[in-house]
Amino acid sequence: MKILVPTPLRQYAGKQAAIDVQATTVGEALNTLTSTYPDLRKHLYSDDGKLRAFVNLYLNDDDIRYLQQDQTAVKDGDTLSIVPSIAGGSW
Amino acid sequence: MAGIAEKVVSLSNDEILRYSRHLIMPEVGMEGQLKLKQARVLCIGAGGLGSPLALYLTAAGVGTLGIVDFDVVDFTNLQRQVIHGTSDVGRKKLDSAADTLREINPNVEIRKFETRLSSDNALELFREFDIIADGTDNFPTRYLVNDACVLSGKPNVYGSIFRFEGQASVFATKEGPCYRCLYPEPPPPGLVPSCAEGGVLGILPGLVGVIQATETIKLILGSGEPLIGRLLLVDALAMRFRELKLRKNPDCPACGTHPTVTELIDYNQFCGIRGEEAAAPATMADMTVEELKKRLDRGDDLFVLDVREPHEFQICNLGGCLIPLNDLPKRVSELDSSREIVVHCKMGGRSAKAADFLRQSGFTKVHNLAGGINAWAERIDPKVPKY
Fold first, then answer.
1. Buried b (16+ CB within 10 A) or exposed e, B58-74
2. Is B165 in contact with A7 (Cβ distance < 8 A)?
3. Spatial contact of B46 and B205, defined as CB atoms under 8 Å apart
4. Is the alpha carbon torsion for B272, A8, B226, B176 positive or negative?
5. Within a 10 A sphere around the Cβ of B90, how many other Cβ atoms?
6. Predicted structure pTM score
7. For residue A89, what are the contacts with CB-CB under 8 A and spacing of at least 6?
8. Active site residue B195
9. What is the mean pLDDT of chain B?
10. CA–centroid distance for B172 within its chain
């Protein structure tokens, strides 16, 4: 499956926009991602290991909060998007 | 749309000619054009997103367009804030925008609000408008706009940009989700991208602002499929548009079934910002650009360390050694701790972090250049460009 990394986080993911990983669940996919790129971890998870409130994860076009969260099953061809909040507009 | 006071309005012959391409299209027609004429839209910000928003809403014949802004046009705005021109530099954005808009369509009533949107004035400002278009550039104001929209029952036409990526949606309609359903909390200030990662492709606010204008017009007309419950992601580099499903969160603190946000709060505090965020406070270990100049002229042995990015170094530099802030931990061994080091960046923020890091790593003779290379350009050497 493919994980899409948004612009603000690419600097912590080897400047890549998309990363292919092998996984069966969303949680496993993210674990694989953050073990390859440990710097990403603090941007995705708070110190107590919870997904940060300003980062959303979408499996294809669905928010994993409304699926089975970390336990959501994934298959080949799925796309997991990391969508953090951005504030720019006037500058 | 709902909320617009029913009163008798009509179009003059001049207006009929002006809006001809709307009128001959059944999706707008006379009925739709009259709806536009009765509509009152409040645009928060006259910057990157506010420029195309205000330009197109004015051209389309929205009856009343309010603009909230307190800023002044500067040269760095002109690359994307197309409502302002070169001769407007130094003018209030409100005045510059209003002149441009009146030239485009004198039939539109432009209402200028020269103020910073705050918890004290937002609800009162919103009262006289039907739709709020959010063209702001910071998290506190985004949460403020959202909560004020939810509390006053007015749709929030949202757009946001970062470098070459954008987001757009329509929040806070009766049936749809709000911004807090999507993002319950803002990022802590430390995780917000610094000016090192800032910047924006000039066309991007154009793209996203025009999407906001489109959604605003659709809401007024009551036609088409508005971006309610959908988040549109725009990637201008890949030129890819993606759409994600949004849901109204029943536990949302603002628009859920048991809301806890029942009045506007202190949004700076909510976003973890204490007071005005100063550009790195000066400390004893800071060095002014005047002092650096004096000591370099005197021939002192100073090691100038530039912690900006390579593309910034290409714009201008002080001949220092370039090690970007993010690379410093793995390249720290390249530095000689016996020498006196002066660290600089663009404005002093990143170099303050770098100086702290070096001190923690055992370097004792480290100075942070206060104000960075921009201060050098301003006060020491006008041949060095500011950016």
1. bebbbbbbbbbbebebe
2. yes
3. no
4. negative
5. 10
6. 0.86
7. B45, B47, B48, B49, B50, B134, B135, B136, B137, B159, B160, B161, B205
8. yes
9. 92
10. 20
Residue numbers in B near A89 (CB within 8 A): 45, 47-50, 134-137, 159-161, 205
On whether the CB atoms of residues B290 and B283 are closer than 8 A, the answer is no
Instruction: Give the integer Cα–Cα distance in Å for B230 and B242.
Output: 10
Establish whether B345 is a catalytic residue: yes
Selection from B384, B318, B325 nearest residue B349 by Cα: B325
Instruction: Spot the catalytic one: B43, B181, B271, B345.
Output: B345
Taking only the tens place, the pLDDT of each residue in B309-357 is: 999 999 999 999 999 998 999 999 999 999 999 999 999 999 999 999 9
Would you call A7 and B71 a contact, using CB atoms and an 8 Å cutoff? Answer: no
* Residue among B132, B162, B309 with most chain A CBs within 10 A, to mutate: B162
Q: How many CB pairs under 8 A join A and B?
A: 99
ipTM score of complex: 0.85
Q: Which domains does chain B have, with CATH numbers?
A: 13-270 (3.40.50.720), 286-379 (3.40.250.10)
Closest CA to B178 of B253, B255, B250, B122: B255
Per-residue pLDDT of B58-80, as tens digits, reads 999 999 999 999 999 999 999 99
- Of A8, A63, A86, nearest to B247 by CB-CB distance is A63
Contact at CB, A61 and B242, closer than 8 angstroms: yes
Q: Which of B195, B255, B271, B321 is catalytic?
A: B195
- Predicted confidence (pLDDT) at residue B3 exceeds the cutoff of 60: no
Of the candidate ranges B27-36, B58-67, B191-200, B360-369, the one whose mean pLDDT is the lowest: B191-200
Confidence of residue A80 (pLDDT cuts 50, 70, 90): very high
Q: Are B354 and B331 in contact (CB under 8 A)?
A: no
Chain B CB contacts of A17 below 8 Å:
238
Which range is least confidently modeled, B180-194, B278-292, B370-384? B278-292
> Domains along chain A?
2-84 (3.10.20.30)
Distance CA B142, CA B79 (A): 23
